[in-house]
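@channel sequence for tomorrow's demo:
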Amino acid sequence: MLFKKIKLLCITCPREDIPYQEQVELACMGGADMIQFRDKSLSDIDLFNISVILQQICRKHNVYFTVNNRIDIADISNADGVHIGQSDLPTEYARKTLGSSKIIGLSASTYEQIINAAKQPVDYIGYGAVFATITKPESQERGLDILSAVKRQNSVKAPIIAIGGIDKTNVADVIRAGADGVAVVRAVCGAKDIQKEAEKIKKIILQTEQEERI
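structure tokens (generated this afternoon):
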């Protein structure tokens, strides 16, 4: 699938004070290019119902909406795509189920996994965890060297979206290392001012890319 460049992917964050609908609305207003809905605690029916609502919000803002892990929910909710991990169902199944017009992202945490992911029917590769993150404390911090090595090789054509502990203080370093975009959870959807934080991170990404082109 050909789709517009993803610079800022915002992943939802379970909160008691701000519901998913408001999180997504504010993130979209702040410049998110894609929203990923992730909540492993919800029932299937709640995942479906909320996905339908979030998709409508994203469509209003011309922002892509994807579902984490659940190919079936992404399919029946008419999401724009799905993000899956190394231990989830194969990307070939996701592509067969969702069709050629949908977005499929695949997680990769090693150099070998990135190279292998690039050979699969995916639209982007999610690399991480770049830095330590409390969202997934079990994830090993991978750093930026692997990302830089992949970019130097220049054989991976799929966009690489970096994730894990990324915020406004380090996002410029991630872009300089070669990431095509970043995915964030707490830095935007977990922030006090979701829209403002999204705006700040998106601005840094675009400014850093412009500086790198000079």
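heads up for whoever presents: Residues 8-213 form a domain with the TIM Barrel fold (CATH 3.20.20.70).
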